[in-house]
Amino acid sequence: MATMTETNEGTPAEGPLENWFLLMDPAWSPAAENDAPPVEAVVGLWPVAEDGGLGKFRANPEYVPADEHSPSDPLDAVLRLVLQGRAEAGHIQLVVRETLVDVAMNGDGRPLVTRSPDDVPCVVVATGEPHRRRVAAPDWRRVDLAELTALLADGVDVLFNPGGPAAVRLTGDFLRESLALDEAQVAELYGPGEQDGAGLRVVPWEPGAAGRAQESD
Fold this sequence. Notes:
Blueprint: E1 2-6, E2 10-11, E3 15-16, E4 19-24, E5 42-48, E6 58-59, H1 74-83, H2 89-97, E7 101-105, E8 113-115, E9 121-126, H3 129-132, E10 139-143, H4 145-151, E11 157-160, E12 168-170, H5 172-180, H6 183-190, E13 202-204
Parallel strand pairs: 9-11
Antiparallel strand pairs: 1-4, 2-3, 4-5, 5-6, 7-9, 7-10, 8-9, 11-12, 12-13
């Protein structure tokens, strides 16, 4: 469920914004038609530009999922669907292009790099507050896909939501390919018949276990 609201809150990246499009927890519903949602029921928001276009999704750090199995945000949701075989590579590409994520930082301006369960060096990324709470990081930095790929050294991948229900490693090449998609390629992914995007390379594992690397080209 989504609704429109107004606020005077601004952001360092984009300046003052008046309109937001809210993504609500599907378990919440207003008791009366004009009831404002509690902040903990707001999954996140998209800023709305003057021309009506939507900015990149921002997870709400105060969101409390109604169910422990509920996704924390759209990117977490699509990662879960992919691991269940209910979504494709292109769905990840479309969502990650339009989402701000939180990168774990060392506190010295560099991203925190750790080893994935299959022993690959990775930058640690959380898509929402529940995933941040599982990571002991000195600092966090909210970035878009362009900034995330700029932080990746050669041979370093991205570990999304470690310890969570849909913890995955996305290769740096896959994320760079997602960023490089042109308008025609994006339109094609939004259209019918999308099967495998630009070649998904995802390595899933069960939380707490190393699992076996799985890759598809």
